[in-house]
Specification:
This protein has about 110 residues and is an alpha+beta fold. The chain is about 35% helix and about 25% strand. It contains 3 helices and 4 strands, in the order E-H-E-E-E-H-H. Strand 1, helix 1 and strand 2 (about 40-45) form a beta-alpha-beta unit.
Length: about 110
């Protein structure tokens, strides 16, 4: 059985650090990560950008984008729902068969 050493990465510009949007996205990512027993972390970059991205990364594999936010107000619950749905869909991909065990957890909180 394949093991999952997944984690969620929230990428944002350093300029976004104090924004409510980043807080909504990072809190939603942390809640999903906690539900799935993954770590979550915020990764900042120097380039000014209005976008905030969430990636799923498993081990040494290439990170997979699962959420992108541009300008506008975000509700944490909306971001959480989008992330939950993407993780559920990703669990069916043959390359990510280690995520099969999360389906039950993700669907229970729908």
């Amino acid at each position: 059985m394949e093991t999952c050493s997944g984690r969620l990465l929230v990428y944002a510009s350093r300029i976004s650090l104090g924004e409510k949007r980043l807080q909504s996205v990072s809190v939603a990512a942390e809640k999903i990560a906690e539900l799935l027993n993954f770590p979550a972390e915020v990764v900042t970059f120097e380039q000014e950008s209005g976008y905030i991205y969430v990636y799923y990364k498993n081990g040494d594999n290439e990170p997979i984008p699962i959420y992108c936010s541009n300008d506008g107000e975000l509700e944490m619950q909306d971001v959480y729902k989008a992330l939950r749905n993407m993780m559920f869909v990703l669990s069916f991909h043959p390359k990510h068969s280690a995520l099969k065990h999360i389906r039950k957890e993700v669907i229970l909180f729908s």
